[in-house]
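testing teh design pipeline on a random one, pls ignore if ur not involved
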């Protein structure tokens, strides 16, 4: 499974970690943690091509695909 959304190009990123004690004192930060995008593997039927395509999408990318249409969105992203 791909680690990046085909439409929005979202992937993992490094973010800071804080605890309640650190917020109180602003001292001794908790280090970094990797945050992963919410990726889903979906099979999408494209009527213009008359076939099904399997893509890995973030949930925001899935909403974009539903709003703008499968063929138009995947064509713009360079998937098809």
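output:
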């Amino acid at each position: 499974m791909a680690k990046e959304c085909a439409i929005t190009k979202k992937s993992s990123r490094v973010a800071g970690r804080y605890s309640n004690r650190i917020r109180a004192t602003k001292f001794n930060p908790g280090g970094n943690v990797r945050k992963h995008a919410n990726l889903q593997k979906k099979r999408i039927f494209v009527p213009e091509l008359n076939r099904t395509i399997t893509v890995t999408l973030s949930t925001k990318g899935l909403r974009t695909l539903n709003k703008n249409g499968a063929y138009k969105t995947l064509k713009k992203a360079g998937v098809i």
